[in-house]
């Protein structure tokens, strides 16, 4: 419809049409059109109708390409759960006494059946890693292994080995001599797990206790590591050593192990024993009593078992570090590592030095928390131990063989438990009960000497 604007004659002084005209006096003359002088009258609209022009010019639209939708999916499932105690592992003596077992055996090797002053070993608390670094107090905690007496001068304490501890030392040496090939073969497998087939000597030295090898294996020339296929490499031998934090020496295999066939891992031997094939290698699961998983974690765990298995002795450079296949390899490496140890367990912080040499991720310690059906974290006296469940819950249905040194370690634990009974009897004033607790003719005399 055409738009027509009609403006009536504005009265004098009304100010219509110009704001400034409102201030004009009422006596201003009017023009013939009825508006004040100086004000132009609006032009009348034409009677011819006009159509409103469109604000948008019509044009042809270009064809629009279909939208591409990018969906990013992640396979990571947070399965880290709160730690739950398992009393069955706390009841294993060789695990519950693991913290004191190593310094006790180390002190037994330093002492002799003849009394020596405590000053000979009192300053070795840091290297022995005794609790609170007080060697004298530690020796007095185990009177069944260390017999205390008064020295000839200044009433200083002197200590010697008990007969039972001396027999254990001889038995330990005899077991290593008889089963040397089996025990040193575990160290060989550890070196073969390294991509470079080498391991810094200081790192290998720290693993000797867990592998059941004497701690003077590299220092005493009588052991002859060459007969076991090992050699110590130094930077001056024309080889490149990558031990930047230590003295540069590395433990390697004679011939770098190039001509040696890679062994099968424990998981592969389990798969061969059950299915006779290596097409699928699952990880044995052993749920603890009362440990429940969410449904999404159960679904993820079923898919995790179907993933390809990469042996710790194989090349892993083609694996994506953030994939589930890489995580399954980490589980397999830690599973194989713990299966080589005497008690199939180790203090978790001691495994950190192996991360770079075994090709493990930065936070590989979280694997123990993400797989509670494979590993158990034993918390004992502010110390965390990683335990392989298969070694204690599988019974005979596993390829993990018993370590030759395990029986010797159990006898050390028996000495520790006997020491507790000796101290308890001394406090109660009943030394006669010691005759039924201690075996051997010389041990009773040792206990009487302690109580006097």
From TrEMBL:
Residues 21-33 have a biased composition (Low complexity). Residues 84-420 form the PORR domain. InterPro entries: PORR_domain, PORR_fam. It comes from the Eukaryota. Signal peptide: none annotated. Residues 9-35 are annotated as: Disordered. Pfam families: PORR. This is PORR domain-containing protein.
């Amino acid at each position: 419809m055409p738009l027509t604007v009609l403006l009536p004659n504005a009265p004098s002084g009304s100010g219509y049409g110009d704001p400034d005209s409102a201030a004009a006096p009422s006596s201003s003359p009017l023009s013939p059109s009825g508006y004040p002088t100086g004000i132009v009258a609006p032009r009348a609209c034409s009677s011819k109708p006009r159509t409103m022009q469109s604000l948008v010019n019509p044009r042809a639209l270009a064809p629009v390409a279909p939208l591409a939708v990018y969906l990013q999916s992640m396979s990571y499932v947070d399965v880290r759960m709160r730690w739950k105690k398992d009393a069955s592992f706390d009841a294993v003596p060789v695990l519950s006494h693991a913290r004191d077992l190593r310094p006790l055996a180390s002190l037994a090797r330093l002492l002799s059946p003849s009394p020596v002053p405590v000053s000979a070993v009192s300053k070795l608390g840091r290297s022995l890693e005794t609790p609170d670094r007080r060697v004298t107090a530690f020796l007095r905690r185990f009177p069944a292994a260390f017999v205390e007496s008064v020295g000839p001068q200044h009433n200083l304490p002197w200590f010697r080995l008990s007969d039972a501890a001396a027999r254990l030392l001889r038995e330990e040496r005899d077991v290593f001599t008889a089963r040397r090939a089996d025990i040193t073969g575990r160290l060989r497998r550890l070196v073969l797990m390294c991509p470079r087939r080498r391991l810094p000597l200081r790192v290998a030295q720290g693993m000797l206790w867990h592998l059941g090898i004497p701690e003077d294996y590299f220092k005493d020339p009588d052991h002859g590591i060459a007969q076991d296929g090992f050699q110590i490499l130094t930077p001056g031998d024309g080889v490149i050593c990558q031990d930047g934090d230590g003295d540069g020496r590395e433990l390697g295999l004679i011939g770098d192990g190039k001509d040696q066939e890679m062994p099968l891992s424990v998981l592969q031997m389990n798969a061969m024993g059950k299915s006779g094939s290596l097409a699928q290698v699952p990880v044995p699961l052993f749920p603890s009593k009362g440990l429940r998983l969410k449904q999404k974690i159960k679904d993820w765990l079923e898919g995790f078992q179907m993933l390809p298995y990469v042996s710790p002795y194989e090349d892993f450079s083609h694996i994506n570090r953030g994939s589930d296949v890489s995580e399954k390899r980490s589980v397999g490496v830690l599973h194989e590592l713990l299966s080589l140890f005497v008690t199939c367990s180790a203090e978790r912080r001691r495994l950190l030095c192996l991360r770079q040499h075994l090709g493990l991720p930065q936070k590989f310690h979280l694997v123990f928390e993400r797989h509670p059906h494979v590993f158990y974290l034993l918390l004992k006296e502010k110390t965390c131990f990683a335990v392989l469940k298969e070694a204690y819950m599988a019974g005979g249905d596993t390829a993990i063989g018993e370590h030759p040194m395990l029986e010797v370690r159990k006898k050390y634990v028996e000495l520790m438990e006997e020491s507790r009974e000796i101290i308890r009897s001394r406090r109660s004033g009943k030394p006669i009960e010691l005759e039924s607790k201690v075996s051997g003719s010389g041990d009773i005399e040792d206990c009487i000497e302690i109580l006097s």
